[in-house]
Design brief:
heterodimer, A: Rossmann fold, Rossmann fold, 2 domains, seven-stranded mixed sheet, 14 helices, 19% strand, globular, B: 370 residues, mainly alpha, ABC transporter involved in vitamin B12 uptake, BtuC, two-stranded antiparallel ribbon, 2 strands
Chain lengths: 438, 370
Amino acid sequence: MSKRLFALFTLLVAASMILAACGSAPAATEAPAEPAAPAAATEAPAAPAGPVGTLKIVSSLPMTGSSLTQTQTIVNAMQLRLEQANMQACGGKYTLEYEPWDDASAALGKWDPAVETENANKAAADSSIVAYLGTFNSGAAKLSIPILNGAGPLVMVSPANTNPGLTKADKDLPGVTDSYYPTGVRSYTRVVAADDIQGKVAANFVKSLGATSVYILDDQELYGKGVADVFEATAKEIGLTVLGHEGIDPKAADYKALMTKISTSNNGGAPDAIYVGMVVDNNASQLLKDKVAIMGDNKTVKYVGPDGIQTQAFIDGAGADVAEGAYASVAGVPLTELPEAGKKFVVDYEAKFGPLTEPYAVYGYETMNVALKAIEDVCAAGGDPTNREAVRAAVFAIKDFGGALGTWSFDANGDTSLTDMTFYQVQGGGYVSVGTFR
Amino acid sequence: MGKASKLNIRRIVIAALVLYIVLLLGPIAGFDIPNIAAAIQANPLQLVQFLIIGLANGAIIAIIGLGYTMVYGIIELVNFAHGDVYMIGVFTSLTVLSLTGTLDTDSPGKIILGLILALVIAIAVGAGLNATVERVAYRRLRNSSRLAALISAIGVSFILENTGLIWAAQSWLVPSFGTTGGASQKVFPDLLGKIMAAYGLDVNLLANTGIALRFTIKDLMVMVLAGAMMLALRLFVQNTKMGKAMRATAQNRDAAKMLGIDIDWVISTTFLIGGGLAGAAGLMAGLYNNTAWWFMGFRAGLQSFTAAVLGGIGNITGAMLGGILIGLLASFSDGYLNARWTNAWVFATLVLILLFRPSGLLGEQVGEKA
């Protein structure tokens, strides 16, 4: 054996010993120290001396890219809910652990199919994980649902996926929705209303603005194209003239040529409105900038989008003066009209993290609410919350739940019973709610 | 029958096949000739409009492409970090404009002064950065396998992208970055429009001429600056001693070394010039598209690299030609075909051209290599 190899071997042995020491040290000190106080305070006689296990909850959201503005508030809200629960479940029997995973990559600048798949596989393999909170992008959900469906199934609760096809069968695409659930058991739920509602309400909203013609653009993703397709179908139904529907290159330097074409698409003039189905990472601000440069402000040619652009990042990227007057819809009611539990959340959130303007934080809070409620329900029924199937069943059993969003239920598909849709308009550099529709 | 004519017949067959497929499947991707003809007939002036947009975009691509082509010409490395040097150029100029108060002033004189300063600093930072990258990440790998330097370049690209990500979050440095973090797009204020407004003029230079075209001060600025830089570079490479040394190094590095040319210095200069051009392109693109984004270097890099390959990598005139061709193709595809398929059309054209001219449009004129 050469000297070098021997040295390397010794080094490895030494390193592994140090690591082992490090690994065991915190485990030894942490376990009794942390839960001791609450256990003693609440139900000292009933509970054993410490927690019997750890339940891990993970979230998988894009945290590299423009969506970070939204996802950071979601993660904050999830953490807030856990802290309120003292990081414990079932009366101190279980310690809760939470890890916010990133499903975006710097290489793409937005959610990355490879990373989301890796996250789902990682979650599937880690048996201490009992709930997977995510995803943010519908396209990402499409990849992780089948993986997690085969892993227990591990229940998914999404704060933000709105593509209808994830839960509801599309009559034009028979079998596609079912193919996401290879075990035949539904394991995916979402606390936000889907785009079959959002797109429909948006088309009616555009009509109510007095528009008769509309040009539709999307970012060619499952979510963006999905909501734009629903918008297009509804627009045609209610008598709006659809001048065109195109997908944009989400990484192009500019869209001046495209906007020039649109500016004469309405018999030589500009359309009354432009609907964009997209998320902010896909160059949404640049698209608006070029639209305003070519066709003027958002009063002359209305600019309407879905929840993917309802974020401060969209306004900041375009500039307050350019974004002025643009509309975006989000499921649910404005923060100020939330029920008591929701209002309390906003107060608690702002006390800890500063002013809240992003609409999805409360949905993040609600997903964690759902996870914790399911775990508690399993415990209350005498079940084992480390059993993924038990937690999944408890999530789907949630009915008339008084959460931060209101009182709502999951249906058999995993969809929420809430169908409110609120429109926001950019006014003076921020989104202001202009009305809630059903 | 000679070998050459056999080859020709094969080429003709391939060309006919390609034409057939394009005509057959083209309409799916928006290539619908009657429709396009009708659109042109309805509004012939719009053709000129797409030409203007395509030229301006192409000019920016071309300027960045020059950096790729020069570096490839001289050390045969595809410098994947080059697009990100351009992105750093955007942030540098925006930061300079903010620190000098140019973003807050309405006085046209001060804005012009600020812009000139920003241009100089962006060029200096781009040049310095590119040369540093070469010194740190590529020089030691010069004699190892080409793949090693290539992977090193990708690594540098990630480092620069993340630098941009962090930079864009520093709102104490540039207050207009706002509070939404480094990941979101930032506004690059429309300073040229501001200058015009100060003189009571429209951004569109043809606003009061009765011609229904948009030829803005931004288009003019991009075209003039890009044209001047390309011309200057060409003259430099053709007529100066350093230019001669660069061409010699490109042809045969070892022979050039034997003739007493300081290879390291020549290569450093090449990186300096390429980086400087990228820095300048950063300011131009910022003023043209009014956006600063940590991710913008990726697509710009891809397009410029494509432009360089299209024109014949290593060939300066080729890179200009390739850049402008890509700009025009994208603009016309957005305008007359279907935006959903624009990238497909651009890259299909690239494949076609390379099929018939494997070394690019001007790839054979090795003498002009730099």
